[in-house]
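Subject — a protein and its fold

Tokens — whole-number codes for backbone shape
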Amino acid sequence: MNTANKRLVILSGSRGIGKSTVCQKVVEIARSRGLICGGIITSKATDSDIIIEDIKTGVRSVLASEPGRYSGPHFGKYSFNPQGLQFGVTAIKHSVSDDILFIDELGHLEVRGEGFAEAFEMLAGDRVNQVVVVIREELLDVLLPRFTNRPHIFHVTMENRDTLAEQIVGYLSEHEALPPTTPA
């Protein structure tokens, strides 16, 4: 990947629309093209657990669970596992020089300066190449000003979620460049 073509992609959409699934498809397509992918991706394991995966190693940890299970920050119906949060920060740090860094997701904890909030500083550095960050629609206005690079925002919808991953990989490649956009 040519670092002269650094790009920041924000993948946004409503809750449960498939942002993480699209993110996983981007990883698969990028890897099939020989790109090194790292960072974190999340998934639901059960009704009460959110799992975080280090994309580069495939190692997983519990990120959050039902209230009171973990001593970390709380948001909504979840208490966050301090070890799971540190696991995610470490995975991000170890992947900043990869071809594509993924951060799924920046949200309410980061608005409060918790969770993966230090990712904003890491993304401002010269070592980061292409970045894909997942952010819920309702948090775009709050979190966009924290990025030093102007992003291109892809909105996940029911109509495009099966084809969006290819478009994102095309945008991140050297051959197809789209002008940055702002939220709708």
Q: What stands out?
A: Confidence is low (pLDDT under 50) at residues 175-184.
